[in-house]
Amino acid sequence: MTSTAPMELLHFHDPMCSWCWAFRPTWQQLRAQLPADLPVRRVVGGLAPDSDVPMEPAMRAKLQSVWQMIQARVPGTPFNFDFWQNCTPRRSTYNACRAVLAAKRLAPESEEAMIVGIQEAYYLQAQNPSDISTLVEIAQSMGLDAEAFAAEVSGATVEAALQEELAFARQAPINGFPSLVLRTASGMYPIGLDYLDAAPMLLQIHTAMEAAR
């Protein structure tokens, strides 16, 4: 995961991370205010590895309580709790991460659209992005070729890219997802998150950029 850019903002995320979903509106505000010469690179961190085992009742209850906690802490974050009745949840997010990487390979500009598509399918439409069939439907809705996308998601190139990003996230100075880190020639600067206001994060980024120059 090397880069020739002298400085970049790393956004560590998982498309099925509920806190990443809650962070999305403020993240969009922050993106709009970043310096024009600061590249942004997304890194999928992989919350949960591949599994075909239905989620245990205790984990189902825990995640539903997390959604409720998020709604209390980040007012206005929408969740469709029908997911827990309509789907068979699995503690598995790697397929969703692969989908982001596959979409990016097929059309670099589709990376963001795939992330949003997964989040909206999961949190608004009560669909299960752990399922390849759901991910293929999202890709089709974006205008990607379903057959090519399915081949990429299950292919060796995307798997290698996923493992590379997972390894990079594990050694980065982060404690979970989402996380922001300013990477400079002199080191990595973690940026404290604010889910309600972009201004404090923007100040941290400017301060770290000045310190690195």
From TrEMBL:
Per its UniProt record, what InterPro entries does this chain match?
A: Thioredoxin-like_sf
Q: Where are the transmembrane segments?
A: none
Name the chain's protein: DsbA family protein
